[in-house]
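Appendix B, example 12.
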Amino acid sequence: MSASQIPPATAVPGDDVPTLLVKIFGKDRPGITAGLFETLAAYSVDVVDIEQVVTRGRITLCALVTAPSPGQGSTGSAEGDLRATVHNWAESMNLQAEIISGRGDNRPRGTGRSHVTVLGHPLTAETTAAIAAAITATGGNIDRIFRLAKYPVTAVEFAVSGAETASLRSVLAPEAAQLGVDVAVVAAGLQRRAQRLVVMDVDSTLIQDEVIELFAAHAGCEAEVAEVTAAAMRGELDFEQSLHARVELLGGLDASVVEAVRKEVRLTPGARTLVRTLKRLGYQVGVVSGGFTQVTDALQEELGLDFASANTLEIVDGKLTGRVTGDIVDRAGKARLLRSFAQRAGVPLAQTVAIGDGANDLDMLNAAGLGVAFNAKPVVREAAHTAVNVPFLDTVLYLLGITREEVEAAETHVG
């Protein structure tokens, strides 16, 4: 068809055009959608909007269509004839029908659109009511709700309009903390599903362990190192000073301990799924760590990471010297590396995601388009864009709008 043959757009009616909202309820089975529209086709109506939901085997099907033109009905009233025909069809299918007259399309959604993702374990009615009320209090309208996952947590997403993303986040964050659920608020738009870069901390994020404590266990100074680590993660000590103090305690260890520590490292539940799914979706994935390249290099190879950067333990004559070499990866260094990775990946910072748990991750979390505090210390949870407090790293996928069904489909169809 040439450009001159394309008919003018008529699918979206003006506010004064009569329309009918046809709602069908009942037990789901194949053929309901086709049957309804075959019934409506006899009246030459145009489809303006469709929404269909199936919950526990029960279907709710809504069709917004233009009202039939005069003369379409066999009884003289086109709309009355359509109503009777649809009700008769629904009754024959053991379904219920409701038809509401009106004019025009759905009312326009308000400006300021966001996705509000709620993770609950479990997600209670009380929690859902409180979140919905908080959204309303900001002036937001909930346009749509759907479930992203039912395990290992229940994850639902609210499509919200009429409130700015920052305002929603500031209201929902304390509400979520009080309710004991995780809530993420991100701006709607194409960039949410665009190719992105995800950069993670390693210790207590990608893996369950603090690597320096694994080394310390071999050196017999685990308690001393753990105490300094905890103070540093709480932001009570300068990271670089604490790093040097801890590494000094490892001096004299045989270099063979590196391989032993690599074998002791435990990935966080869901870590493989997270990385594998992101890679299949075209994301680039990197890690930055205040730990050591002796471990992160092995993780990069094992998981197929695109980027990895960490501190390096100095080894001389087969022994750890108790020093590190090269630039220190500290709080500022992590943010700098995020920007460097983004530049190398050709990804704007607005389309990056950073995940971490400690105070030394804060600059990175704040620099990213979305900063996720994962089972983090209170100071980090309060400063990050959103927090996840369940022990499954792949729940971060739900914050990006990726459903559990999509994850499982990818696992099934790709080896």
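The first strand starts at residue 18 and ends at 27. The radius of gyration is 28 Å.
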